[in-house]
Amino acid sequence: MCGIVAAYGVIDPEKCERMLARIHHRGPDDTGRVQLENAWLGHQRLSIMDVSGGKQPIADDTDSAYVVGNGEIYNHEDIRDVLSEVRFATDSDTESAFRLVLRDGSAALHEVRGMFALAMAHTDGRGAVARDPIGIKPLYWARLDDVTIFASELRAFDPEDQPFVEAFPPGHVWTPGVAGNDVAEGAIVRFADAVPVEVRPARNAPDKQWTEEDLGHIRDVLSDSIRRHMMSDVPVGVFLSGGLDSAIVAAVAAKVAEEKGERLPTFAVGTEGSADLLAARAVADFLGTDHHEIVPTADDLEEALDEAVTVIEHFDPALVRSAVPNLLLAREAVKHVKVVLTGEGADELFAGYEYIHDEEFSTPDALQAELVRSIESLHELNLQRCDRTTMNYGLEARVPFLDATVMRELLALPAEWKLKIHDRVEKQLLREAFDGMVPYDIIWRGKEQFGDGSGAKDVLSALVEKEKAKEGAQDAEPPVVEHGWDLRSDEEIAYYRTWHRSFAGVRPDRTLGAFATA
């Protein structure tokens, strides 16, 4: 996990250095850069794989091609086996993807499994910039007159460049032109869909209930993903909310840690006596983890709220509210580990949100389409909040539910199995698959929003009213957001004003998403 900056075309090294300095928090362990005639690559490193030897940029054998990367390539060992003739310079997972593209071209990115944003450059003007298919790792770009620039966060860009900044689309690769002044122009193509194409149609099974074999398959697929996501040369922990999804991740991860002779660190946040804190404690006791609790005061929550909007680079109320406990959790966790696993993506795969069970999505085809749509939009919502709150403190968050194999297998299940019919509760399928691996009360615990279960809701509501009053005193007229973005509530207006102070030139319609309600 790291932060990257890349530029192609007419290079301004001072601009690139400024951009890189603004994302130092993403990789406080080391800084690296390389400048070529028509390209500049910069890297802030958080050392997780090949701690001693994985410094970036990484060069090829002849120092004619370079790469910087943000994220993790989980099948990097498999790639190395395929590239048996290649002499690798490091044990870095980023180098595996780099060498594969050098040999087979950018189309080979379809074979790379993981979360990543990669930027490559050659001395002859060629290059490539790519983002993983779901957009787990952030990447933004601005196409200016004579240069195209990329960065891991919005805050990296100079104010005068903000109006041109867009979210780089997941599953795409950009290659620069190589003729004269066309270097910055380039071309962009898709190399993979967020959700594998073959699982988009719903599979109907109206008269068939799932079997123990089906449950075992779900358990095996998810357990394998969690194991692979624990790939690291540094300690790995789990964010434990006390809900179903993170409890499942913790249960499998605790077994993996035990096999290594280690004890899994887990982290929970909540006000004293809150439902999430008590539930997480029960899971930790059941699994025997090395458990850490963060019990914030009202002052702690107010401090986190003040910075949440700027940190997550978003003003959607649902994201801001959940970012507050996440920030406190990350700040504590980074004292103990450099990597955490989370339960992001489970609700999208198993129809965990209440709105999904409305009449609008009551047929298998409608439900399947909505699950796919919600996964495709994660990069500009939940995953943005997840990445920024952790990387603000140099902590890497991994999301095993969003592994490509997991999505392919679990979205291929009959969609009607995920409907709340025949006295089922939401995510009944997932609950039954892991019944017995975590406490019974947790497996069958109802879903709560993170801010609600952590006990932060009432405190945050009071703080929001305080923020609204303060902002209202400064400007009685509600702000106008150009380009068709409608502010949907007083709370969102208050957060937007905070966001606008840092990102005044950024167009929300090109960089952000929004939940259905504010």
From TrEMBL:
Q: What is its EC number?
A: 6.3.5.4
- Reaction it catalyzes: L-aspartate + L-glutamine + ATP + H2O = L-asparagine + L-glutamate + AMP + diphosphate + H(+)
Q: Name one GO molecular function term.
A: asparagine synthase (glutamine-hydrolyzing) activity
Q: Which InterPro entries match?
A: Asn_synth_AEB, Asn_synthase, Asn_Synthetase, AsnB_N, GATase_2_dom, Ntn_hydrolases_N, Rossmann-like_a/b/a_fold
Q: In what pathway does it function?
A: Amino-acid biosynthesis
**Domain Glutamine amidotransferase type-2 positions:** 2-179
Q: What class of enzyme is it?
A: ligase
* Stated family: Belongs to the asparagine synthetase family.
Keywords attached to this Swiss-Prot or TrEMBL record, sorted alphabetically, are: Amino-acid biosynthesis, Asparagine biosynthesis, ATP-binding, Glutamine amidotransferase, Ligase, Nucleotide-binding
Q: What is this protein called?
A: asparagine synthase (glutamine-hydrolyzing)
> Domain of life of the organism in this record?
Bacteria
